[in-house]
Amino acid sequence: MSKTTALRAVLTARLQSICPRVYYGQADLNAARPYLVYTLEQLGQEDDMHRLELEINVTDYGVDTATVETIADSIMDAFDKWYYIDDAIQFAAYPDRCQSVTEDDRNVIRRRLLIELHFYERR
Question: Among 3.40.50.2020, 3.50.50.60, 3.30.2000.10, 3.40.470.10, what is the CATH number of 3-121?
Answer without folding.
Answer: 3.30.2000.10
